[in-house]
Structure formats: C-alpha cells, structure tokens
Amino acid sequence: MAEPRWTRQRALAWQPAMAALERLLETVTATAVSTAGQPSSGTGVSEVSAALRRIEGAVRSGTSARSQALPAEPSLGPVIDAARSVADALDGMPRPRRPSRSPGTPGHSLTPRSPRR
After folding, report:
1. From the CB of residue 74, how many other CB atoms can be counted at a distance below 10 Å?
2. Strand, helix or coil at 99?
3. pLDDT computed for residue 1 by the predictor
4. pTM of the model
5. How far apart are CA 115 and CA 117, in angstroms?
6. Spans of all domains in the chain
7. Where do runs of H (alpha helix) occur along the chain?
8. What is the structure's pLDDT at 67?
9. What span, in angstroms and rounded, lies between the C-alpha atoms of 15 and 94?
10. Torsion angle, alpha carbons of 45, 24, 98, 116, to 10
11. 87/59 Cα distance (integer angstroms)
C-alpha cells in the first residue's frame, strides 16, 4: 500500500531541511572536537543556542525561520553558517496542509484515540 499523496509531498518538502539539519549536527560535532581545550565565549555559544531555539519555535509556529543576528565568534563560524542553511531550507519549503477532516467523515473522531496495544 502506498502512502497518501500529501504524506509523500510533505516528506519530499522536508528533505532539504532534514539534510541541512544533518549537516548542522555534523558541524556542531566537528567544531566541538576541533576546538576542544580552546576557550570560547560562553556568550557566543549561548547566542547560537538561542538562535537555534528561535528556528525551532518558527518551525512549530509555521512562521519564518530566518535567523536573526548571530555572534561573530570565529570558532563558531561553521556552526553559524550551518544554522543559517537550516533556516534558509526551512523558509524555502512549502507548507502543504493535511486535508482537514470534519465530524462524520471516515477516520475522524471527536475523542482522542487510545494507543494500540
């Protein structure tokens, strides 16, 4: 059985963002390894963390994920660039909506389903 068209379209729409997110995770790891033992600005790390939280909030709310001002700390440059790539990928993707189901249509329930056991 094939998945519904909207599921396939949504998965394809998320592909660039997922690839950018994977690159971000790899970049964070590489930066942590390459800068181990070197002092870095706690402020810069906090600012990058806050920017990533803003991107996460934008995804949840369906608003623009454009990153705002990010720190200029050289050791975080690759991470900042990767975070911008994630925001760009998210802003470039369409947001298809799942067809809404109204009461009385198959598959709709007014009460939440309990998990199958």
Report:
1. 10
2. coil
3. 52
4. 0.67
5. 6
6. 21-32+45-93
7. 5-34, 42-61, 77-91
8. 61
9. 11
10. -90
11. 9
pLDDT at 106: 52
Residue type at 2 in one-letter notation = A
Distance CA(107)–CA(59), nearest Å, equals 27
Neighbours of 37 (CB within 10 A): 4
% of the chain surpassing 90 pLDDT: 12
The answer to whether 96 and 13 have CB atoms below 8 angstroms apart is yes
Rg over alpha carbons for the chain, rounded to the nearest Å, is: 19
- Determine the Cα–Cα distance for residues 74 and 89; give it in Å rounded to an integer: 23
pLDDT 10s digits, 76-107: 889 988 988 888 888 877 654 544 554 554 54
